[in-house]
Write a structure and sequence with these properties.
Layout lengths: L44 H20 L36 H30 L5 H28 L23 H22 L9 H20 L3 H26 L3 H32 L23 H32 L15 H9 L1
């Protein structure tokens, strides 16, 4: 790829793709690999809608039973928060973690599968066609970036709102550790955390099922997903949701800028895409590197602000921050930062090329069309 504005890239990853072109393009109905009937909800909106409807219908039926007020509704944990702290006040309810959270995560994995399909096909494809995008490969990429933009914009704004309710506002990192354990969560924080976990598991499923065409950074993207799930799971398990919220927000906000730049590039909005790219570089630099290095600094140097009584691993008390947990927190965050620096290098390379050459186009775009041009030529022949 020569001097190009590289924004039609894999979701969350500003890495250029050198994926070889195929000599033919299968029809849209054959572009996706077959999946087990048990996983049809991952690719068919009607099936995911059916799965989502089952707990809702069962919940409603239970509520109609005469003894429903005497027993908790067993279907509520699928879509409502569980494990409320019994003595938390009605005007400030708090929630703890528990096994029912697995049901909540499973339900929202299906939920995000439905949302992804609806956005990529029902919302983004008509918009893409309006702007003259016709090739199946580019329609797929546009849909992926549209979904990424909507998700990260919403979650970034939600994370911002939640941090405003916490003592960690704006990256007051000492409160990651002061008063630990932070085991009782505000309902918004718990829902936000579990839905983030569901999203990343669903995205890993997308990769596993081949629902998105692999790019040259496929290995790095898979590593990113595994490290993210590792961080989310451990931080939730050991009551480090405050630092988790800070990390999430530092990732989601620049991802929204990145996906938006990619969308503008596909729509050939030349001036707008350059302006959005500049904003993306600034946001990426500040959130993904400056703030994340600050978080790493806090893990290394402020960890000892944890109360002495919480530096002993006692499951019943929710205290887990003994000496080796410092490294359990630091290492995956450092690995995540290594991946971010790898992609940051590629972003800066794009920026340098854009400055050096006045024509800022992505001449790699046609490599992402799955050989549709070859198909057209074959049909003419």
């Amino acid at each position: 790829m020569s001097a190009s504005f590289q924004t039609d890239l894999a979701p969350q990853t500003p890495l250029e793709s050198n994926t070889p072109e195929r000599r033919f393009s299968p029809p849209p109905t054959a572009r996706r690999p077959p999946v087990s009937p048990w996983l049809s909800w991952a690719v068919r909106p009607i099936d995911s809608l059916k799965v989502l409807a089952v707990p809702l219908i069962l919940y409603a039926n239970w509520q109609l039973l005469p003894w429903s007020n005497d027993f908790p509704n067993p279907f509520a944990p699928f879509f409502l928060l569980s494990h409320r702290v019994p003595d938390s006040p009605p005007d400030d309810p708090r929630y703890a973690k528990g096994y029912y959270d697995f049901l909540f995560i499973a339900y929202y994995i299906v939920f995000f599968s439905l949302v992804r399909q609806l956005i990529t096909f029902n919302l983004c494809r008509p918009i893409a066609r309006y702007y003259g995008i016709r090739k199946e490969g580019k329609l797929d990429r546009y849909g992926e970036q549209g979904y990424a933009f909507i998700y990260f914009a919403v979650m970034g704004a939600w994370g911002y709102r939640i941090m405003g309710q916490l003592p960690t506002w704006w990256y007051r990192t000492e409160y990651f550790w002061i008063d630990y354990p932070h085991w009782d969560m505000k309902p918004e924080l718990k829902r936000y955390y579990l839905m983030q976990m569901a999203y990343w598991i669903q995205q890993l499923l997308v990769l596993a099922l081949g629902l998105e065409k692999p790019r040259s950074d496929y290995a790095e993207l898979v590593a990113h997903h595994f490290v993210t799930i590792w961080l989310v799971g451990w931080s939730y398990l050991v009551n480090l949701t405050l630092i988790g919220n800070a990390v999430y927000m530092s990732m989601d906000i620049p991802d929204a800028f990145l996906a938006f730049s990619k969308l503008l590039n596909y729509m050939r909005m030349e001036r707008a895409k350059i302006i959005s790219f500049v904003f993306m570089v600034v946001a990426w630099t500040y959130f993904r590197h400056i703030l994340n290095f600050y978080i790493l600094w806090s893990v290394w140097f402020e960890y000892d602000l944890t109360p002495e009584s919480s530096k002993i691993w006692i499951w019943e008390n929710g205290t887990y921050l003994n000496w080796w947990m410092k490294y359990q927190v630091f290492v995956p965050l450092a690995l995540l930062q290594v991946l971010q620096l790898f992609w940051y290098y590629l972003i800066l390379r794009i920026a340098v090329r854009a400055i050096m050459i006045s024509q800022v186009d992505d001449d790699r775009s046609d490599d992402e069309d799955d050989g549709d041009d070859e198909d057209d030529k074959a049909k003419k022949d």
